[in-house]
């Protein structure tokens, strides 16, 4: 009786930790976690019924025996198909590496800005200054404007932060009387310096890896421009960065 009681208490705990371990190890999606939960629940119910004597043990061993017989019978066929399955998985994984990186990053002295291809959403981390380590989305409009004043010594950071404010706080200019950096640069102020483009930077901006081919480069550029073109809420600075990244990578391929 005590053994049955301990088994009834221990089985749910064991099932919970096993499910959590599998979820972490294989990085399961929420959908996959739900399926795993139902499978573990079903197995738990069967185990409890067996422990209570309500279900004969052969109820478990019969399906397992049938599955084992099936595997033994078709094992040669499965082994012959294994190389094709591995090749298929490799192609899918390769395609996933090309298109799965759906976010781009533009780094400046003060901000690491992330651009999501599918939605055009922008967010970033402050990497320098009083707000270092914080996400832009966690800062209020007043704090963002203060950060803008703080990073005036870096034109690239100003441009990126203005693009974020324009998208997330449309009325911030009228509320603060702030001119855009482009308008301010129309005077005697220096224009923003253009960072030297390199392969690593271009890949990061377009959200690609080194295996990207011409098709992947053009696709990533098109997705970003559809969301971040100046006519669609983006800025000339962002468009220039995206275009420069595409041109650099395509030129590298031609070489």
CATH topology of the largest domain, by name, is Helix Hairpins
Structural class: mainly alpha
Shape: elongated
Order of helices and strands: HHHEEEHHHHHHH
CATH superfamily of the largest domain: DnaJ domain
Characterize this entry briefly.
The protein contains 10 helices and 3 strands; from the N terminus they run H-H-H-E-E-E-H-H-H-H-H-H-H.
Strand and helix layout:
Layout: H1 2-26, H2 30-51, H3 58-99, E1 103-107, E2 111-116, E3 122-126, H4 141-150, H5 155-168, H6 172-176, H7 181-184, H8 199-206, H9 214-228, H10 236-254
Antiparallel strand pairs: 1-2, 2-3
Helix pairs in contact: 1-2, 4-5, 8-10, 9-10
Provide a descriptive summary of the structure in words.
The protein has 255 residues and is mostly helical. It folds into two domains: 2-98, no CATH class; 103-254, Orthogonal Bundle (Helix Hairpins). The chain is 64% helix and 6% strand. The chain has ten helices and three strands. It has helices at 2-26, 30-51, 58-99, 141-150, 155-168, 172-176, 181-184, 199-206, 214-228, 236-254; strands spanning 103-107, 111-116, 122-126. It has a three-stranded antiparallel β-sheet with strand order 1-2-3. The longest helix has 42 residues, at 58-99.
